[in-house]
Amino acid sequence: MRTYSPKQGEIKREWYLVDAQGKTLGRLASEIAKILRGKHKPIFTPHVDCGDFVVVVNAGKVRLTGRKAEQKMYYRHSGYPGGLREIPWQEMMAKHPERAIELAVRGMLPHNSLGRKMFKKLKVYASDTHPHQAQQPKVLDL
Asked: How far is it, in rounded angstroms, from Cα 56 to Cα 98?
């Protein structure tokens, strides 16, 4: 018996469309990360990028549970002393609603060059329109 390891040329990539309206952020992000990584396929291999493309629409209508909507903060640092910046959830959703989903999914992917390659297959849009109609994405109901 031999273990099958898929080659890059043998992997068939599909496109999936996810509507984030009314979905919980963390649960949605974990399902998207699973598809980007390729864990839903029987040929999944940890060291090969065998995942599919994911298009997320209505990112501005994703929700949080409990009091996280008032308490959740996003942090970034400029690298200089005193350069820590924090942005509350409401401000992030008002200015860049797609960034909240991107940050949640990025944290669930591997933190290496393979994870960065997987992350490039994620397309997030704040409204319900997107420029990927030509790829004929399959609608996923998560």
From this structure: 9
Q: Which amino acid is at 100?
A: A
129: region left, alpha or beta (phi > 0 left; psi from -120 to 50 alpha): beta
- Residues 78-120 have pLDDT tens digits of 999 999 999 999 999 999 999 999 999 999 999 999 999 999 9
| Strand partners for 139 | 17
Helix (H) or strand (E) holding 32: helix 25-37
Task: Read off the pTM.
Answer: 0.94
Question: Tokens 């297959």 label which residue?
Answer: 121
Domains of the chain, earliest start first: 13-140 (3.90.1180.10)
